[in-house]
Structures are given as C-alpha cells and as structure tokens.
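Sequence in, structure out. Go.
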Amino acid sequence: MAPSAATPQEWLRTFEAAVRARDFTGGRELFAPDAMAFGTWARAVAGLDNIVREQWQNVWPRIRDFHFEPGAQVQASGDSAWIAGGWLTEVTGADGSPITRPGRGTFVLERRAGKWLAVHSHFSLLVSAVRVRPARPDESAILAEMANDLNEHVGIYGRPFTAERVRADGFGGEAAFTPWVAELDGAVVGYVFFSTGYNTDIAARSMWLHDIFVTPAARGTGVGQALMAAVAAETVRQGGASLEWGVHSANAGALEFYKRLGAVGGEARVMGVAGTRLRALAGL
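Output:
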C-alpha cells in the first residue's frame, strides 16, 4: 500500500516505487477515480479502472528500475500541481540482454480532501529506434519462427512454417504475400504479412493483413503501432481504400489494440475449406 504523499515531489517518488514494485493497489491510491491517461500510441483512456487494465497491467510487469531522471519539473499552485520530465526504465531485449528505454511523462495533480491525486497522466516512449522495412530472404528463418509463435498464441499448433516455405511464398515474382519486419535497436522484434486485395463492399482496391506479431519482450514499446502504420501507408501508396484483417474473438489484447487504432469490426465470419474438403469440393 502506497503511503500518503504530502507534496507533489513525494507523490512522484511514491509513484516510481509503486511501478518498480508492480504494486497496482498502491498505484491506484495515487490516482483519482475519474483520471484520464494517454500513452505513446493510445487514445485517451478514461477512468482509473481502465488505466490500470489497459496501461499499467500491460507495461509494469515488463519493465524494471523505472524512475524519472534528475531535473524533473514539479510545480504547485494552491490545490493544483503538475509534473513533467524524462524517465528511464530497463527491459529485456530480443537477444535476452537488458536495454535501457527512455521516455517522457507528465502528470496533473489535484489535492482532494488533503491528498494529492493524479487526474491526468501522459507517458511517451521515445520510439525513434523502431524501424519498419521490407524483410530480406535471409530472414526467412526468423519470420518462420515468429509466424509459428503467433499461431501457437491463438491456439493453432503444429508449427507449419519453415524458412523454405517463407522464402518460397514470401519472396520473388510469384510471392503470395509481402513480409515486412520491425527492428528495435537493430534487432528484429516483429513482422507483418500482407497482400493486395479487393473490397467488394465499396468496389475499391484494398490491403489484407494476414499476420501481425511482436515478440513478447518488445510489446508495449510502439512496435505494433509502427507496423500497422507502415502497412496503412503502403495501402495508401498503392491506391487502396481500406486495410482489413481478421482477429480471433478470444484474443482480447489484440481486440483492444485494434480498437485504439480506430478499427471497427463487421458481422461477417471468415469460412473456408482446406485439405481433403477442398479437393472434394473441387471434385478431385
């Protein structure tokens, strides 16, 4: 349980300690129930319960040694105060080594019943290290590994992807899809597979996103948003009017992520035949 903070400076130290301890209960005591929050990529998150669920529980377990850097600005006037400054934290990189992540944060505090409470927070990760680019054929093995990990994440087992399959289907003049990767600090930490299509609902060219995946260690760092933004830009560049994809209904995290991007769902269900049923339908 977080102790009561007598000053905004004490409030900041207490919040830092709650994040480092992953003390969600203590953190809640520092925020007003009607608080509003923003993240690096997120739209406004209203209400403390939503802030805890959508931000804290997704980020705090993945970071270590969170702290604001010396020189953070703290100002108070009457029953209002604001805090602004740079922060640092440590995460585990794709190769297992520790990486320091910098960012910026602001808080607006109000003193209610003699207690300082945050009514607004905005955290921005400095994401200049995220780079999205077309994949290379020599990255087929890591693409296959991540594609198989995505399948298992949604309950599809068997790990059907191999480097040879990705190389044959993702590259060259007869490619069935386009593979792009995301790099963070020079390491590949995510990918997308997409291909051009046609949206008959609006009679216009479209882009179909087959897969998007970010390695667990890189989640919460803006990689997913960067991948989606890159594919959206490529859709526009190619004259597409829409970017579409499927999502498993049980994948709550993905559904929430897509909602934050402004995506909306339809009523259609994806159906298909494969293997012997495909051959039977074909009369073979």
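Check: The longest strand covers residues 98-112. The chain has a mean pLDDT of 91.
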